Amino acid sequence: MPNPDPAPSGPPSADSSHSDSAHSDSLRSDAAHSLALTRRTAWKLLGGLGSAATLASTLAPPLAAARPATAPAAPLPAASRPHPPAAAAGIPAPARAGEGGSLPTGMLRLDGTGMTLLLIRRATGLPEIAYWGGRLPDHLDAAALYAVRSPDTPDNGPDQWQPTITLLDTIGAWNFDLPGLVAARPDGRDWTALFQVDAIRQTPDELVIDASDALSAIGLRITLRCADNVLAASMRLSNRGDTPLLVERLVSGTFLLPAEIAALGVLHGAWAHEFAIAPMSLAEGGIVIESRRNRTHDHFPGIVAGLPATSRNAGPAWAAQLGWSGGHRLCAERMEDGRIRLTVGEYLHPGEGTLEPGAGLDTPTVYATYSADGFAGCARAFHAYARRHLLRWPTGQMKPRPVLLNSWEANQFDLAEDRLRQQIDIAARLGVERFVLDDGWFGARRNDRAGLGDWTPALALFPQGLWPLSDYVHARGMEFGLWFEPEMVNPDSDLYRAHPDWVLQVRGRPLLTSRNQLVLDISRPDVAGYLLRVISEQVVDARIDYIKWDFNRDLLAAADEGGRPAYRRQVLALYALWDKLHAVHSALEIESCASGGGRADWGALGHVQRVWTSDNTSAPDRLLIQDGAWHFLPPEITGCHISASPNWLDHRATSIDFRAAVALFGHLGLELDPTRLSTDEQDRLAAWIALHKRLRPVLHHGQIQFGEATPHRIVRGVTTPDGGTGIYLVAQRDWPPARMPSPVLLPGLSSDRRYRVTMPGPQALGGHWPSPAQQRLVRDGLAIDGALLRDAGLFLPQMPPQSAVILECQAL
């Protein structure tokens, strides 16, 4: 597992029609005539014969007494009368693996640069997942694949062999794991599904499978795409019947992991402690991770897995994440053969998956990758995919991420325009490129109990509106950003008093608040139209370049005006509103902020240009939060701020150098009052911002490298794809366990190149008595072979807790 470092499928079998006596006779016959019994079968026979009489004498009387007398059944109401019985189905002949319905009819594959997904198409059913892992040779013998994927039939298994795992396991096939599809008609029919493939269309990077179940009258489309070594999977289920179909679960994708995996890295946390990756063992059974808040502080929708020897930089590793900003379910379950089925999908509340005749349900996309280079290799694949295929920029490509100053921690609700202008003046001298006015600028919003929803400037604070402040910001060469929380409303607001019916609520039940807030039903056209109008007015009137979009409470009893759950539609409506704002204001950038990491996922990444990973800006904690987040999110879209000292949350005092070094690698920002900085602190902060600007072409386009991650030291970096440049953070969280610090290894450098290693300013050399070589590291730099830096390591001067250095490596 990374070092600070889930829903499968299954159906029941049919009950035996033999009587107890017939079953006992069969056991006696087996015992008499079998020539070779396994130990397990022998014990089962002895148990069935030896204790059957005792159990029968004990259980028969009460069972007989409990058996009701036969009586004519009462007539059923017309609406619940059974349908005419269908013709009895034929019983297929017994068939071993590779015979009958499991006869292999084709091999399907998708390949990434270092990954292969291998499928077997059989005569009946959906394709079997035969393999997902490292890249296989281009020319594989299909017959050999069929042979190695033809096991024997287990005891008490089906007489007609079926594969253990397909692209969508359903109720009605022969397995007993959590099914990927759970659906039925209102009268309880069509609760099983046995899909048959209708058509397959394949290109080098895409596989589309159309299937259907004529008996249940449902259709299925499975879409698999592979790009930049990331597999993207999604499904569409369609109702072809003449009555509604009630879908309780439909996963986005099913993945096969090897039996050797003993633990999976699950992301868990809470507000201010997001993106923690913790190993969960999986000896038997399964692990199910669910989030039902429509926010993901508790569980980010991602998971990683590796073999026992897999590390951050070496060994086979697998990872998956769901592109969805609502509830989700991840399930990893050991199958009967020991391998692991991983399923990922959204969490559907009751009724959210109901399909009327002719309607369809599209799942969000799940993204998965494999790497032979450990968990860092998975992260690099995710970053490359997001940069090329997911992120959308107003100008078509990412501009240098502007260093910003956010007003919240410096001012909170105490917004005085003259003091804001002083902060803006100093920020401009520091090199800040974007000023963001946070909460408190509108309506009666002088605290968190009133005004939310009334999106007009507070004239008591800004008598002429926001445009004079915006002009002041722009005149100093900076962009102007503004905070909104559009999905929320305070009960004490003009908006709620005018439209109490606009909020999500279960009519007749108490209307519960959180943070003094209620949630607007933005799936209503009138609500979405209102928000689009009032936000657009501010974007135009105040020349807003950037919106910080907050979302500060979980959804609870979130019902629409008809009383139905609205969790899913709320997410879809949010995506639509973001897209409309981008369409109307083509240069606008949006940040997804939900009390920190509550909406920092790949669903949001398709619609916004920045995410806020945590409200916790304390540098020691941010070391861990950013480490977990960067396993899935590109650093350049994650806000990383230099806050004040002592920190507002934990009151820890840290140096400005430590705070700046920790924040350097992401989208850099300031979360402090620059007027309270001493002249020396301002100078040092300006130097750090200048260093960030010089390094950000590498930091924001390079490849992430995860090095050491222990309770006392964290090492990570970014290298250019060709290995010509590497920039590394070495952060000391606590005293080393040994008397002297161990050498620092710098992963990702080329072993056949030589580098000049420097500690760029404004850093100063620490330690008790640095060696001449360590002194040259700061003064002139050291020329060192990449193999030595990567594998032998570099001794740095001893560093006290909560200190850090940045190392820059340039190939000679």
Automatic annotation (TrEMBL):
It comes from Nguyenibacter vanlangensis. Residues 1-11 have a biased composition (Pro residues). It is an enzyme of class 3 (hydrolase). Residues 17-28 have a biased composition (Basic and acidic residues). This is alpha-galactosidase. It comes from the Bacteria. Keywords: Glycosidase, Hydrolase. The lineage of its organism: Bacteria, Pseudomonadati, Pseudomonadota, Alphaproteobacteria, Acetobacterales. GO terms for molecular function: alpha-galactosidase activity. Residues 125-345 form the Glycosyl hydrolase family 36 N-terminal domain. Residues 73-97 have a biased composition (Low complexity). It catalyses: Hydrolysis of terminal, non-reducing alpha-D-galactose residues in alpha-D-galactosides, including galactose oligosaccharides, galactomannans and galactolipids. Pfam families: Glyco_hydro_36N, Melibiase. Its EC number is 3.2.1.22. Residues 1-28, 73-100 are annotated as: Disordered. SUPFAM superfamilies: (Trans)glycosidases.
